[in-house]
Amino acid sequence: MSIKYTFLSEKPGLKGTKLQVCSDENMSVSILQYKMQGQLLYSHERGMYSEDRSRQMQQIKEFIKIADERSMDLAVTPEASVPLEIIKEIIEGRIQRPEAEKLWCLGTEGIYKEEYKELIAEWSKKQDIVFIYPQKVVMSKHINPMFYIFQTAEHQLAVVLQAKTGAMKDDFFQHEQADLSRGEEIFIVDLNGDKAAQNVLVTLICADVLNVNIAQFCSNFHGKSPVILNIQMNPKPYHGKFIEFRENIFNDNALHMAQMIVANWGRGTTIDLEGERKTSRGYSDSGSTVYFSIGNNHWQMRRKRILENPDFIREGLGEAQKSGLEYFLADQYEVWKMQEQIEVAYYEKKIGYRVNSERDMTVRQYYP
Q1: 3-state secondary structure labels for all residues of 227-240
Q2: Burial category of 223 from C-beta neighbours within 10 Å (exposed 0-12, middle 13-18, buried 19 and up)
Q3: Fewer CB within a 10 Å sphere, N or C end of the chain?
């Protein structure tokens, strides 16, 4: 299957739009990341969704409220975490919309095939939003989507729907392999007003990592500083294939200061088949982590010299660990892992294009 990569700056309705995640004017962006424990069900016709709908609706509304009140540059939720009703209420104006230059990346529960077709027809006719969606989806039973939500330069609401491109290959997810409608287009967020964006953002929905051609994927970001979001509902976030993908990203020398954010559900999350006895034992580890090319934070590229730097140990690692991060150092990248007790993380992340400080980011904890 061939994947089409579309830069959002090419879309007429988004001309002149600027997002802070693509800006090169500030040293960092603020991020709010959802990492709650959940109990999900899988339906052949619908895909994944939360068993307790009212609880999930309330949690996501509180999450969005925090993102809005604290004017977060980027708000991220895992795969299948946001009920579709939330997206509808944002479009209808019943839930607050993001401020100018802010981006919400919302992994959404599965959508019935027929409902998806109805939404495409309805939202395409709306005059008060800019609605962008994949031009081709290989239809089966349900869609597994994510949405970018933001304001355009003309103060309209932009709603960008991206469909998962491929199913998980784990034995439990054999149903998804048969049921998933597969998107064939991935959108690249490169909105920096009238300037070309050096800092760009792209989202892969869980097993998209397993289905993209890594060389083709990376070629879209050569000479740029990409932030790669991998939103997951994944009980095995450290599977070898996910590690292999990450290492390929950080070994590509043509990517300038690459960064990767893994947004998974929290430890203890379960998923069971709808209507059958519950057998899921729950995640043992969320794996929600921020990865940086070593050059993002260090002029010295050798691990030994980095770990001998007293300022980095005291001011970087010391504060980070107090705030809820665990630190690891690989050959080509740094690992800033969110501690399992963190449920909603707020942190500052340096942008890739402008780096002049070793001190990276802090995390605070909030409860919806």
Answers
A1: EEEEECCCCCCCCH
A2: exposed
A3: N
| Measured distance CA(148)–CA(191) in Å, rounded | 12
- Alpha carbon distance 302, 158 (integer Å): 43
Residues in the chain: 368
Helices 84-92 + 53-69 axis angle, to 10: 50
309-341 b/e with 16+ CB inside 10 Å = b? eeebeeebbeebeebbbebeeeebbbbbbbbbe
- Provide the token pair at 286: 């969320």
Check: CB of residue 252 under 8 Å from CB of residue 245: no
d(CA 150, CA 200): 15
Closest CA to 5 of 107, 134, 102: 134
Q: How far apart are CA 136 and CA 156, in angstroms?
A: 25
Residue with tokens 């991020």: 31
Query: Which letter does DSSP use for residue 173 in this model?
Result: G
Q: Is residue 121 helix, strand or coil? A: helix
> How many whole angstroms separate alpha carbon 155 and alpha carbon 129?
9
Mean pLDDT of successive 10-residue segments in the chain (368 residues)? 93 96 92 96 95 97 97 98 98 96 98 97 96 95 97 97 87 75 97 95 96 95 96 93 94 91 96 88 91 73 67 66 79 88 89 55 40
